[in-house]
Amino acid sequence: MSTYLAKERRVAIEAVQTACTITTRVFESLVTGDTLTKKDKSPVTIGDFSAQAAVNYILGQHFSDSIVGEEDAQDLRVEEGAGMRDQIVALVNDALSARKHIDAPLSADAVLAAIDRGCDTGGTGKRFWALDPIDGTKGFLRGGQYAVCLALVVDGEVELGVMGCPNLPLDKSQPKPADGEIRGQTQGLGVVFVAVKGQGAVQLPLGDGGEETPVHMRDATSFSDAVFCESVEAGHSSLDTNARIAEILGMSKERSVRMDSQAKYASIARGDGDVYLRLPVGDGSYREKIWDHAAGALLVAEAGGRVSDIAGRALDFGRGRTLAANRGVIACQEALHAELARAVAAALTEEGRGALLE
Which residues are involved in binding Mg(2+) (predicted)? Predict the structure, then answer.
């Protein structure tokens, strides 16, 4: 195995595994059957903060790199946040202690400082980590798919990506559990995906000591039997436009899988599906966050795919905390990508949204 980024790879895997122990514990202990009904986001907030603190702390023990993360600790420093802060501090200390990263508990200030290490603005000409501690918050709350995503960006290019998917089957031939089936039924679930630029992509069990196996996109010469991986939430992508693109490409309307988070990238990378579209909604003014795509984009590229924006341009991770130079994301096998981009352009033009391609 190449020595390039060997230490970073090892530490990132450990950080993601540690974070996944936290998110799993939060789901099992704090998410109830009526969490979504009551629109109670406190469990995912606690999980987000706790996972970010643990990852940032572990990275900080080994590297001086800055971190672009989703959360900051401002709301936990006020009196109203004391109860949540105490839960987060306990979760972080339990996880770090269990995995032997600390000999004595961290103080609340130390945990909050670890969270705030994620406040960097990113950019080019530097090396930094991009972290999404719980990608797919509604999937997490539903007991569906979510991911802990960590990537190393060097001068605007993603060089390393690690993604933990606690609810995804290790064996891709096994059916994915439906939302709500996760609780108490974790046998065979839990995968970590790893990609280093130029070294291919692998998966390994989420628990310690598992064997790494290569992952590859499915061989395909046309879209006739291709499968879409789409977002569950309609607000995250133009699902009607996706359907029109499928029609243009001659894809079956019945062959689509919907799931939350960057687990979609992981699924197409190992051949569960073939096409991922995250098309602009409305006027296209929204810009994707870099932590929502960095790890997944590299994983697909190293598994034999191509990821771009809707106009076919490479994603630029050196413009700050967002993909400011890009609109939307499309991904599929390398050989079919140009055809996919043409279909996307045709569908958007039909809708009168062709200007988004400029």
Answer: 70, 132, 134-135, 292
Alpha carbon 352 to its chain centroid, in Å, reads 31
Pairwise CA distance, residues 121 & 128, whole Å: 10
State the DSSP string of 188-217.
Answer: TEEEEEEEETTS-EEEEESSTTPPPEE--P
User: Residues annotated in the binding site for Mg(2+), as ranges?
Assistant: 70, 132, 134-135, 292
Catalytic residue among 18, 48, 116, 309: 48
Residue whose pair of structure tokens reads 């970010």 in the numeric block: 52
Q: Which long-range contacts (CB under 8 A, 24 or more apart) does 83-89 make?
A: 84/42, 84/45, 84/46, 84/49, 85/112, 87/46, 87/50, 88/46, 88/49, 88/50, 88/53
Torsion of the alpha carbons at 170, 174, 179 and 185, rounded to the nearest 10 = -70
Residues 6+ apart with CB under 8 A from 110: none
- The pLDDT value recorded for residue 37 is 52
Residues 306-352: pLDDT tens digits? 999 999 999 999 999 999 999 999 999 999 999 999 999 999 999 99
Closest CA to 160 of 352, 302, 258: 302
Q: From the annotation, which residues make up the binding site?
A: 70, 132, 134-135, 292
| CA atoms of 178 and 98, how far apart (whole Å) | 30
pLDDT, position 300: 98
Indicate the pTM of the whole model. Answer: 0.95
Spatial distance between the Cα atoms of 85 and 87, rounded to a whole number of angstroms: 5
Reading the block at residue 56, the tokens are 């940032």
Number of H helices, E strands in the chain: 9, 12
The one catalytic residue among 18, 24, 137, 241 = 137
Q: Provide the residue type at 244 as one letter.
A: R
Does residue 48 carry a catalytic annotation? yes
Q: Whose CA is closest to 220, among 142, 134, 306?
A: 306
Domains of the chain, start order: 6-214 (3.30.540.10), 228-357 (3.40.190.80)
Quick check: 270 and 303 in contact, CB under 8 A?
yes
Pairing mode of beta strands 275-278, 329-333: antiparallel
Question: Catalytic annotation on 137?
Answer: yes
